[in-house]
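To whoever picks this up:

The parser on our side crashed when reading a file containing two proteins. I've narrowed it down to the boundary between the first structure block and the second sequence. Both blocks are reproduced below exactly, byte for byte. First block:
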Amino acid sequence: MKHVMMSAIALGSAVLSAPASAAVIYDWSGASMIGSARMEASFSFQSDTPLGNSQILDLSTANCVFRLNGSNIGCARIIMGLSFGRNAVSVMANPVGFTAYQINSEFASTSLETTGSYQSIGGNPSTLTVTNTTPAVPEPATWAMLILGFGLIGGTLRQPKASTATASRA
């Protein structure tokens, strides 16, 4: 019965402990000129995992600003990720009349996974800052599992050994 109880406690602590979630934060800013029009854009985006192949980012979580000659005209779409062996970022503004504006840049192939600040190697001049965040302190569920584990080991060691009866011949 005690072994069943200890197994149930161990299973419960394993279920309660969840791994700490890490996040990757991307901060990008870039600028470009088309004739006399000066474009500037920036965004900050957080993902649970490093971005892989090219994908459209959710604008409701991307915190994007696109300025045309100093006036914010808003972002229409952000595409970011691996494309043709390079990491590409393309920020498109909401159309002004019949004109659509966008800023494109390319970065080294490792820049979406590794923490650091990167300058574009192709396209318009821009900067990408990648920050991998990991929790500095174990979560309470991790501490609970550790303490329960030590308790189970201590309880197992403390149990009396089963005595074996030996028959003696007279």
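<<boundary where parser fails>>
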Amino acid sequence: MNIGRNDKCPCGSGNKYKKCCMVKSTKFNLNDQDRTVFQLPESPEPNIQLCNNAIHKGYRFRAVGSKVYTRPINETFHEFIIGCYLLGLYGEKWRQEQMKLAENKRHVLIEWVNSWREFKSSLHDDKHKIKEHLYAAPPSGKVKALMQFAYDIFCLEAINKLPDFWKARIKNNKEFQGARYEIAVAAILARAGFEITFLDEQAIKTKHCEMFAKHKKIPEEIAVEVKSRHRKGVLNENGAMSDIETTKGDVEKLIKDACSQKPGNVPFFIFVDVNVNPIIEQLPLKEKQWVKDVKTMLSRYGEPTSEKPTPFNSLIFTNFAYYYGGELEEAPSGEVYMENSPFPEVQCSHPEIFDEIWKSLTMYAEIPNEV
């Protein structure tokens, strides 16, 4: 890939290549550079064909989908997907517009990015030193939220499955939470081995599910609907956050709405982001208030039977709410509760599909240190 000095930089910043990523090798010294990685477990992606980075003539080349990025040789994968790839997707013009706003009016991503930069700066001491020029630490809540969001988008872009309508929605304060969760679910399914077909809400005016997913190895296609519980003071929502409010599993309205969007003769999976604070209740998952609320809600409908089947095959409740951890030293863990129906309206012909989805859910927080 030949890039001219005055061409736009392939990192997506909008700047000329010579003023962005064209670091001259004569001025680049590995011995003088500190590298930052986050101490997270390695996670190969057997169901996503990721292209390994390559080093050539003093640069590191990274491919994401059909794009190739020329990067400094010592930049880590984590630094790339946040500082170059994700921020390049948002663009410098968007960032400058956000910085003109009052702090409480800015997009939550700005807050996460600032936390990430402060986090990186705090690592350069003997306590966090792993080896020469290499530092590591568990990410804080906001940093983990940013990291996971960047990796979700990276996974979808790697398989050319990041629709333009999502790129617009993630920049919008009011649409960010919903779009972020849809991207997370799509990434979970992609990592589980599904090919995904998205349905654009703007193009289709009638009620419909979010996406269809067809497994690449198991001959099964499912319909998927995605809902996220909005709470005051969280993820760009107006109002003050309440500790009591942010422990409840009050998602019945979301499930009813999701069921109304069920398509025809195809298995139906519903993902619900409960968006509760995982820190307040230091209890086993089954004893947490939101799980009790969900179970109570489901019990009101009674046990499904062949005469009274459920519209869904599986209800999947997730709480990957790392952002509640704020600036704490280590992000809270994610939580998942999955309720599979023994009598759905449309049976899955291959029950192992549930295992593939569950496996991907339990591995969701695992991000590789390098690709």
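After patching the parser it read the second block fine. Residues 141 and 326 are 5 Å apart (CA to CA). The longest helix spans residues 141-158.
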